[in-house]
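README, section 4: Worked example with a bound small molecule

Sections 1 through 3 covered apo chains. Here we extend the same pipeline to holo records, where the ligand is supplied as SMILES alongside the sequence. The molecule in this example is pyridoxal-5'-phosphate. Nothing else about the input changes; the structure line simply encodes the ligand pose together with the chain.
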Amino acid sequence: MSFFRDAIERMDGYSPGEQPQGGKFIKLNTNENPYPPSPAVIRAIEQAAANGLVRYPDPLATAFRMQAADVLGVEPSWILCGNGSDDLLTIVTRALVEPGDLMRFPHPSYVLYRTLAELQGARCQQVSFQPDWSLPPEFSEADDNLRLVFLPNPNSPTGTVIDPQTILALAESLPCPLLVDEAYADFAQVNCLELVAQNEKIMVSRSLSKSYALAGLRFGFLVAQPQMIEQLVKVKDSYNCDALSIAAATAAIGDQQWLVENRRTILATRERMSGRLEQIGFEVVASQANFVWCTHREEPLQPLYEHLKSNQVLVRYIQYPDWGDGLRISVGTDPQVDACLDLLEARVSS
Ligand SMILES: Cc1ncc(COP(=O)(O)O)c(C=O)c1O
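The generated complex, written as structure tokens:
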């Protein structure tokens, strides 16, 4: 006998990347930032803890919204906070999609979108990128059952970017909201924040996990027009962000100098890493994120992943149905990246 909804029984569930809790792994598999966050973050957590955790936190994380509004040049009423940006993707899906409805997203991209569709009992339409990583015309087609479109920009696993003008035109042709998932946008040359005011269908989600080095904290936010935020607030858990994370995230986004310097370091390592991977014989997609996606004409990739893992280096090996496989390698510190590349070089050229 099953107690569960059919949709739950049928689905596999999302498998996050490996998160070993012991051992001394060099972790280049889930796009965390390898550097410590702004020192202001630690001070803010200590201060919030010293003030006590007896009371419930602010349900709307007002302190963060005000600080972020100031930094981003939008009104606080345009911002919704979440327990990581995954929480916001969940809220948006629950708010917009009913069983049998259609959700669209590109392929290959973030695997969680499919899980969110399956949780709702919705149908998904995964539209393959073109060989140059642009979107095919089908991605913009209207469909009466379409309720939500996800577009990760930069995309994962490729780090490729669709330009904002194309995204605006896409939103104009779609009959439903378009969530631009900007988990990696702080590492890119462009973003879609300014489009939110131009079309109410465009929503932008951001994460503090990658560019602010706070994956363990769980904090993200969504920027959308206030009438959209007003509806989404009804769907979220009352206290989806805790007092420590609100304090820490507010301090993190307040230290833009830290962000600028960290970004510069990550981008320099990314360029060096891409160049060296190419020298070793990999095909590397030009990335605007804090990871690179690479394939190899001759070498099978899964044994390379296993080889790295047996040497305490974790990268992400992904095999996409109907697409093929590749290695997604996060940008670590220079010594971490060199350790990974030395192992690959020795293995590939032996
Ligand atoms: C494209 C994309 N969106 C969202 C997320 C989730 O980020 P967060 O840690 O903010 O939940 C990830 C995490 O890997 C991601 O790759």
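What to look for in the output: The CA atoms of residues 148 and 165 lie 20 Å apart. The chain is about 35% helix and 20% strand.

Section 5 describes how to batch many such records.
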